[in-house]
Amino acid sequence: MPYKSRRSGLTGNQLKIIGIAAVLIDNIGAVVIQRYILMEAGTMGGRLLAAAGEGRWLIAGQACRYVGRLGFPILAFLTVEEFVRARERGIYAIRLLATAVLAEVPFDLAVYGTAVYPYYQNMMFTLFIGVLVITALEWMEDGAFQTTMRARSLSRAAYGMAVTALGCAVSWLCQCDYNVLGVLFMVSMYCFRRSETAQLISGVVLCAVESVGCYCISALSFVPIMLYNGRRGTLQLKYLLCAFYPLHFLALLGIGAWIGKGA
User: pTM of the predicted model, to two decimals?
Assistant: First the structure.
């Protein structure tokens, strides 16, 4: 069996909720605490800061960011799983792209305070690029495609490395969240999907490198990932991330506006 099928452990739905919760905690730290409370002196945020003490808010904000490091690897892992099992891969990719586009303005407003910030893009673009790369890698299994590669004296390894490098380059040029390491993580989860050990080793290494400034804490995301039992769960939550991602930025903007009003 190419996928896990244990009866015990975490379902895909439970794993998705853990990943979403981590992303929410991360952005509470980044937007509500670090941007509004710690930077809005003279407003309600300033009074909250004075009441609780700056040091405590600094610690709280940093703790939220550390917990948030677990979110992307979990959601990227599930994106690969859902892609492999999806009947309509094109529709799945379009859904990711639509979510990324819809979330970009709320993301820019919440994180940077402007409706258009072209120098950094939200993580859904990284998931979309990763799906495009693994789609191209999947084509290598097609018989007609393999015949074409042999006719042009192309090896599967060379093609795979070229496609992966292109995806990494696009994510870096667009400055997508988690960019190169995010794409490499998704490629490793796809290529090693039949080996839990290979997924664990490659994933932990990439997560550790990505979060080296946070004591490599992203590697801990593999605690819940390795508990995944390969089952979706009873509820239909395939649209949960797509709905949550743009809406949670709007909610955080509302909280930030309330903090910034003063009174």
Answer: 0.91
Phi, psi of 121 (to 5 degrees): -120, 155
Do 27 and 110 form a contact (C-beta atoms < 8 A)?
yes
Partnered with residue 121 across adjacent β-strands are 176
The per-residue pLDDT for range 35-65, each reduced to its tens digit, is: 888 876 556 666 666 666 778 889 999 999 9
Q: What's the pLDDT tens digit per position in 63-83?
A: 999 999 999 999 999 999 999
∠ Cα 82 83 89 (to 5°): 130
Residues, the chain? 263
Say which residue the tokens 């895909």 belong to: 12
Backbone φ/ψ region at 111: left (φ over 0), alpha (ψ -120 to 50), beta: alpha
C-alpha 140/C-alpha 229 separation (Å) is: 28
